[in-house]
Amino acid sequence: EDQVTQSPEALRLQEGESSSLNCSYTVSGLRGLFWYRQDPGKGPEFLFTLYSAGEEKEKERLKATLTKKESFLHITAPKPEDSATYLCAVHPQRTYKYIFGTGTRLKVLA
Amino acid sequence: NAGVTQTPKFRVLKTGQSMTLLCAQDMNHEYMYWYRQDPGMGLRLIHYSVGEGTTAKGEVPDGYNVSRLKKQNFLLGLESAAPSQTSVYFCASRSGTREQFFGPGTRLTVL
Fold first, then answer.
1. In this predicted model, what pLDDT tens digit does every residue of A28-70 receive, in sequence order?
2. pLDDT tens digits along A33-44
3. A100: which chain B residues are within 8 Å (Cβ-Cβ)?
4. Which of B59, B90, B100 lies at the smallest CB-CB distance from A46?
């Protein structure tokens, strides 16, 4: 069964304290892995797509990496405005569907 | 370019009432999706469409119906609302490179 697990559920960081969020997945075949940011009361906002193991993408303080079993979202020197819930999703082969994890709630303290 | 829009933003229904949620996208995307988001459960797929005139069931389709009469619109209907349908509903459309773009959501409460 295709599955996505995100950890930790919640994370509190001091401003400038770098860390990583984990997304572990099991799929029969991967078409793509996606990271989204969701602010309270809003819809998820697309961040990155990763297609194959070894791929990396960067945007400002965020860097996403992918292996055959998991993806990491690295946050370097975070700021309070990085506080949000970060969602991971996979798009398995032979389906139009996406499977989402339950997210990691990140709080960055000033 | 508005992206994905949803109406209404909030709605309160009584058990047994019906309503339709409207999703519109201006990105000319073929694929559209309806999700519900509940605390601790993540986004769950209700129905989806791979093109105008097509619809298919997702993970949690019971109690919902959909229609895709025009490429830019995807409607989600609740024929007889139940308290278990209290949730936040998100619509999304998918680009050719497979990332999804989400609307702002509809917060529905069924009393």
1. 899 999 999 999 999 999 999 999 999 999 999 999 999 999 9
2. 999 999 999 999
3. 42-44
4. B100
